[in-house]
Amino acid sequence: MRDDIKRRIEQIRRGEVPEGYKRIGGRIFPESWSLNKIKDFAKTKSGKTPDRDRHSEFYQGGNLNWFKTGELLTKYLSNSEEKITPKALALCGMPVFPKRSIILAMYGATIGKASILDENSTTNQACCCIFPSSSYDTEYIFYQITFNREAFVKISAGAAQPNINQSLVQNFCLPLCETNEQNRIAEILSTCDRVIDLKKKLIEDKKKVKKWLMQTLLTGMIRVKDIENGTPYEELKKRIEQIRRGKVPQGYDRNGILGIIPEEWQVFQMSRIISTLTDFVANGSFASLRANVKYLRKQDYAVLLRLEDHSNDYKGEFVYVDMYSYQFLRKSVLKPGDIIIANVGARCGFVFRAPSLKLPMTLGPNAILLRTNQDDYWVYYFLSSSIGQSQLSQIKGTSAQPKFNKTDFRSLSICLPEIAEQIRIAEILSTADTEIDLLNKDLEQWELKKKSLMQLLLTGIVRVNAEN
Question: Would the CA dihedral through 141, 144, 146, 150 be positive or negative?
Answer without folding.
Answer: negative
